Amino acid sequence: MNEIINLNGPIIAHIPFLDIVLYISPFSLALVSVIVAFTIFLALSKPELRSVARFGEDIVRTTTVEEKEAKFRRFMTILCGIALIGVVTTGDLFNFALFVSLTGITNMGIFAGVKDRHVLDATFNYGLVLMICSLPLFGGVAMILAKTGTLSMSILANIPTNPILNMSRMLLLIGAFGEGALAPFFATKVEMIRAKGAPYINMMHLSSLMVFTRIIEVLLILG
Amino acid sequence: MPLTDSIVPTVVPNIIINFYPIAILIAILTAVIGLSGVVLERDDFQKILILQIVTYAMLMIVAAVGTDLAEALILPGLVVSLAEILAVTEVLIFREYTKRGIKNPKLEHKPVDMEILKTAIPLTSILCVIYGTILTGFTGGAVAGAGILIYLFIGKPKGLSPRFWEEMSGVSGLAWCLWLLGFLLYFLNPRLWLVALFMSGGGIIIKVALKFGLLGILNREEFNR
Questions:
Q1: What angle do CA A95, A103, A48 make, to 5 degrees?
Q2: Cβ contact (<8 Å) for A131 and B58?
């Protein structure tokens, strides 16, 4: 509990959904407000009109996203925002893993309908990374459960660290890197954001940022 | 070298605690087999199929904990892995259509061509249904549903119209209501626990068995269009 208070400031409120203990501190409140503001901004905005100038021709074409596709992407963006709110507020380690992987799946959903071969290739590879990285993510959580017998972050904060816990934390970190398309896996992300339909694809950046911030906080709490 | 000596109750035998590192090692080996798919396979579809093994390794690590909580955590893990494989497969299908420039793909009826479907005895399905009825509950429903599936695949269910199967799905919905009513009765009046148990047990077996039967209808309706 001390670690959480040291990192986050005083806990303002608990939201007890039976086992699923969500907590709100000044830190997570700031993150939630950023996510909510960004999601509302994206949900209300219209898809971009992109101008494509082709080499050797004297024409500039304007392309845009179809209505149906834009609706689906907007829906996925809102879902991703909800999953991110779960990521930053949850106090349960397994729910954290579930919300992070939900973020990954919804991120993939935003790009799934893009009619562009390169983007679809990159999305496919990102999906493969997601499938691989669910192993270290959930594996790390399960090993922490096996070692300490609990998944609650407020109890885990009081348990002193040891080599096996450190290994589990390492696995958790690798898993979150893969699901959030962070450092070693960002090549797919760079390809994916070439898709047209600008406002929605920015959700990917926000989710990477939030997953990164939260996984560092979780690792510090567990330490 | 028990990893979890301090928190495991004393009633648990030592040999079971010692199984934990072995389970983790087997899971890691499974994951290595799965990951070899990325390195060795060139076909994208094969890649997905072999990477699915990695998610089994994840389930094994969760299951190795071996408590009630771990049992409850397996289902969300399974759902997440299924959602991921479904999403990746959808992306793959859409990419192939985009490559070939097809807008509305036509599905062709390609019956599953396996030798076992021709040589298996239809009696297997009857045995499955009978055994499932004896088991009752969710497991029994799954076994009976497997029996119905076997009948759909190996038998020639031409006499059954799609209307019949739709009525069956209606029965499934009613059985689900029976299940819910059983639970409600149990909470309202715990003294009637035997009636409530039979209501919910009987309801869930019919519901789950007929849900498996639905796969057969979906299969036929999809291709008949």
A1: 155
A2: no
The verdict on B123 touching A (C-beta cutoff 8 Å) is: no
Residue recorded with tokens 């009525």: B167
Distance CA B1, CA A157 (A): 26
B173 close to A (CB below 8 A): no
SS3 B112: coil
Mark yes or no for CB contact B38/A102 under 8 Å: no
Alpha helices by DSSP H, B5-136? 14-40, 44-63, 68-100, 115-119, 123-135
The secondary element (H helix, E strand) that includes residue A23 is strand A20-24
Interface TM-score (ipTM) > 0.85: no
* Interatomic CA distance for residues A53 and A62, integer angstroms: 9
Are the beta carbons of A151 and A159 closer than 8 angstroms?
Answer: no
- Give the list of residues 6+ apart from residue B28 with CB closer than 8 angstroms, or none: B57
Count A/B contacts: CB-CB distance under 8 Å.
108
Provide CB contacts within 8 A for A160, sequence distance 6+: none
Q: What is the pTM of this model?
A: 0.78
* Buried/exposed B175-203: b ≥16 CB within 10 Å, e otherwise: bbebbeebeebbeeeeeeeeebeebbbbb
Q: State whether residue A139 sits within 8 Å of chain B by CB.
A: yes
At A63, list the tokens: 């392309």
CB contact under 8 A, B76 and A94: yes
Task: Compute the average pLDDT of residues B141-164.
Answer: 72
Q: Mapping DSSP to helix (H, G, I), strand (E, B) and coil, where does residue B13 land?
A: coil
CA nearest neighbour of A146 among B26, B78, B60, B7? B7
Encoded amino acid at A23, one letter: Y
Return residues 14-43 of A near B (CB < 8 Å): none
Q: Does A142 sit within 8 Å of B70, measured CB to CB?
A: yes
Nearest to B36 by CA among B21, B23, B47, B24: B47
Summarised one tens digit per residue, pLDDT across range B35-83 is 887 888 788 888 888 888 888 999 999 988 888 888 888 888 888 888 8
CA distance A135 to B31: 8
| Tokens matching residue B21 | 């590192």
CA distance B5 to chain A (A): 9
**Nearest-CB residue to A127 (from B80, B88, B98):** B88
Residue A24 above 60 pLDDT? yes
SS3 B102: coil
